[in-house]
């Protein structure tokens, strides 16, 4: 990494923030200087080499922490010959200096090349053994991907998806167990909950018509006792299911969820669904609630069956959406711009990540935080108020990082 005399790393990072805020021509060069590295994988073939070997190549370039944890998801796609067609992985871990780092690894603009963005990760809560990356490697070592896909159409693109330790409820569709010294086997579990580090192999864009093969290494997992139907009743309020889908229940029977419709390319596309039978069945309310946007949903909240909010994040900002007819029509919410001092006479708006609104004294309030790299005033948030059910908002004040999280 080139170091310019007279510019410290801190100053460089502040300059990077300026470029991000204002779209400066320096943006790309500074981003590459501080964060981005690339890895060439021209000779890599998923049939002949392991995914762990691919991460070893990445480690040689950026010195990955050990152990690694999934921060979001792992999604790799390949063609019939075993050549990579796309790659996405968001991982995190603690380095030798005790600093928590994140790494976003994705396709480069250049062929046969990966781009690696990295930075410090203040969110230590994600470092759970449920999100360990190593079970992905252990499971794939027991599989022949070439044999796994041989019955699927030759012209298709195939994928490997991993999101850590998951619960599949009692739905054993496509579930195969490994770890018995032989090949994949099916086990009928009946009323038992299916738990495990799950590696899914799928046909890209065809997961609704061609069932993915879902592999669980039984040596790494413990099956639960039979499920008590009473314990399965949903809790009222906000929750996240085993597939990381955001849900909000108004009652034990009525709820909404942002269902993941497609996650094959690293980003997620969502549909808004509603249940009136405690999640036994779901009905589509809006197949495209975010108006064509993909990303990662950051929240969902309904005040009644008609009025609610939801949000989606992509890169360095998130967008809040509002509905007043149960999700059939959903519109983005805008907030008055708040400018804070940067350096000299320059200002910028660091507040880009809205939380879910909450009600107080018949008025709505919402806090808007900073992106994951934001360091303005120790992570302060902007507080907004609405007196017309969230149609318009006015700026109230700057508040601390823990304020307004609902």
From TrEMBL:
Cross-referenced SUPFAM superfamilies: Oligoxyloglucan reducing end-specific cellobiohydrolase (SSF110296)
Under InterPro entries, the record lists: WD40/YVTN_repeat-like_dom_sf
What is the protein name stated in its UniProt record? BNR/Asp-box repeat-containing protein
Q: Which organism is it from?
A: Alkalibacterium gilvum
């Amino acid at each position: 990494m080139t170091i310019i005399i007279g510019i410290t790393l801190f100053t460089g990072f502040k300059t990077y923030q300026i470029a991000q805020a204002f779209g400066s021509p320096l943006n790309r060069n500074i981003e590459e200087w501080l964060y981005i590295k690339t890895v060439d994988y021209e000779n890599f073939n998923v049939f002949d080499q392991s995914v762990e070997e691919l991460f070893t190549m990445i480690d040689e370039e950026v010195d990955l922490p050990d152990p690694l944890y999934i921060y979001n998801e792992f999604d790799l796609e390949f063609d019939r010959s075993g050549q990579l067609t796309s790659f996405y992985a968001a991982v995190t871990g603690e380095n030798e200096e005790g600093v928590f780092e994140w790494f976003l690894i994705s396709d480069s603009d250049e062929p046969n090349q990966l781009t690696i963005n990295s930075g410090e990760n203040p969110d230590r809560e994600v470092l759970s053994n449920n999100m360990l990356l190593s079970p992905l490697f252990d499971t794939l070592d027991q599989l022949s991907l070439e044999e796994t896909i041989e019955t699927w159409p030759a012209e298709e693109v195939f994928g490997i998806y991993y999101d850590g330790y998951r619960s599949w409820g009692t739905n054993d569709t496509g579930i195969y167990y490994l770890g018995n010294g032989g090949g994949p086997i099916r086990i009928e579990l009946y009323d038992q909950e299916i738990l495990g580090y799950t590696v899914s192999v799928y046909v890209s864009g065809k997961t609704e018509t061609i069932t993915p093969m879902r592999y669980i290494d039984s040596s790494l997992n413990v099956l639960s006792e039979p499920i008590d139907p009473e314990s399965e009743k949903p809790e009222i309020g906000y929750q996240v299911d085993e597939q990381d889908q955001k849900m909000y229940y108004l009652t034990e029977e009525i709820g909404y969820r942002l269902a993941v419709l497609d996650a094959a390319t690293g980003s997620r596309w969502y549909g808004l669904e509603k249940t009136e039978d405690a999640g036994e069945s779901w009905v589509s309310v809006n197949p495209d609630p975010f108006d064509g946007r993909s990303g990662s949903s950051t929240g969902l909240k309904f005040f009644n069956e008609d009025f609610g909010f939801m949000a989606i994040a992509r890169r360095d900002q998130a967008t809040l959406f509002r509905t007043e007819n149960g999700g059939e029509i959903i519109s983005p919410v805008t907030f008055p711009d708040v400018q804070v001092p940067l350096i000299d006479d320059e200002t910028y708006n660091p507040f880009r990540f809205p939380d879910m609104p909450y009600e107080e004294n018949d008025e709505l309030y919402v806090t808007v935080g900073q992106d994951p790299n934001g360091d303005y005033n120790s992570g302060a948030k902007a507080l907004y108020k609405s007196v017309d059910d969230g149609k318009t908002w006015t700026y109230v004040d700057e508040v601390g990082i823990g304020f307004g999280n609902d």
